[in-house]
């Protein structure tokens, strides 16, 4: 932990608040407000919120279905299986699907429809990001749902509660810790995503993660600017973790709601 976490973090903070000559400065951290960096930063936040929302809408019904088959570990394993594949391979697979002469357009052409041009657009990046981070939303919600005692639902049914009332008054409140955890696990990494944007966006979708990556790896590398931007994103991560801890601590109270 000291070697691989604490030391890099200390170096990151040091570089974020110092210039090339070693003097103290806030310009690296304040660079996030520069229009050049602010636009991709806002684009990253907007895309992250959209990706998180899509993942949540898709994950909750899927988690309910998985809860129904929770005793069948094979069903759950089938869903987790794609996570065992290499991240780059999964993204390359979507590239082959979305190319103008790719699998998707070949199918559409065969069916008599026109081609769709998704490659190198923001929608291709959103699709790839949703695909890659969907399991990180489903699994926390699923873990929260399987903890709900079936006797509680049966008792609600005996008292005359319908399916909508059970969902609204029992299932959703008791799944909030899992929802918050899933939102944190999807939103935080998707804000700083740059690999998917590079592979599916074709350099036309420029996110804050791409700015940071170029700050560290380009021919005009500036580790101080990259560290300052990275530190700004870390603030968002800390805020998300505080929110998660708050709702996680309220789990017991929510169970009695």
Description:
- This protein has helices at 2-16, 27-30, 35-68, 73-80, 87-98, 103-110, 122-146, 150-158, 163-191, 195-201, 208-217, 223-249, 251-255.
- Helix 5 (87-98) runs parallel beside helix 10 and helix 11 (208-217) packs across helix 12 (223-249).
- The model has no long low-confidence stretch (mean pLDDT 86).
- With 257 residues, the protein is mainly α.
Which descriptors would you attach to this protein?
257 residues, globular
- Sum up the overall morphology in one term: globular
Summarize the main sheet. Answer: none
> Class by helix and strand content?
mainly alpha
User: What's the mean pLDDT score?
Assistant: 86
Helix content: over 70%
Write the layout of secondary structure elements.
Elements: H1 2-16, H2 27-30, H3 35-68, H4 73-80, H5 87-98, H6 103-110, H7 122-146, H8 150-158, H9 163-191, H10 195-201, H11 208-217, H12 223-249, H13 251-255
Helix pairs in contact: 1-12, 3-7, 3-9, 5-10, 7-9, 7-10, 9-12, 11-12
Summarize the structure.
The chain has 257 residues and is mostly helical. It is built from 13 helices and no strands. 75% of the residues lie in helices and 0% in strands.
């Amino acid at each position: 932990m000291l070697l691989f976490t604490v030391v890099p973090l200390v170096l990151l903070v040091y570089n974020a608040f110092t210039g090339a000559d070693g003097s103290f400065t806030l310009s690296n951290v304040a660079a996030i407000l520069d229009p050049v960096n602010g636009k991709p930063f806002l684009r990253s936040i907007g895309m992250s919120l959209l990706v998180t929302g899509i993942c949540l809408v898709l994950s909750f019904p899927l988690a309910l279905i998985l809860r129904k088959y929770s005793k069948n570990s094979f069903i759950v394993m089938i869903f987790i299986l794609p996570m065992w594949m290499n991240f780059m391979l999964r993204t390359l697979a979507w590239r082959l699907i979305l190319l103008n002469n790719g699998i998707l357009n070949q199918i559409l052409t065969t069916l008599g429809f026109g081609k769709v041009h998704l490659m190198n657009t923001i929608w291709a990046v959103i699709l790839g990001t949703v695909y890659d981070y969907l399991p990180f939303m489903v699994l926390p919600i699923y873990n929260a749902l399987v903890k709900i005692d079936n006797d509680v639902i049966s008792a609600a049914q005996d008292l005359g509660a319908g399916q909508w009332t059970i969902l609204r008054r029992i299932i959703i409140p008791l799944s909030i810790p899992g929802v918050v955890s899933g939102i944190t696990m999807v939103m935080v990494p998707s804000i700083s995503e740059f690999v998917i944007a590079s592979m599916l966006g074709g350099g036309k979708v420029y996110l804050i993660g791409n700015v940071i990556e170029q700050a560290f790896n380009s021919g005009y590398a500036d580790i101080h600017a990259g560290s300052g931007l990275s530190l700004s994103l870390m603030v968002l991560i800390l805020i998300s973790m505080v929110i998660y801890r708050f709702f996680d601590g309220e789990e017991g109270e929510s169970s009695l709601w």
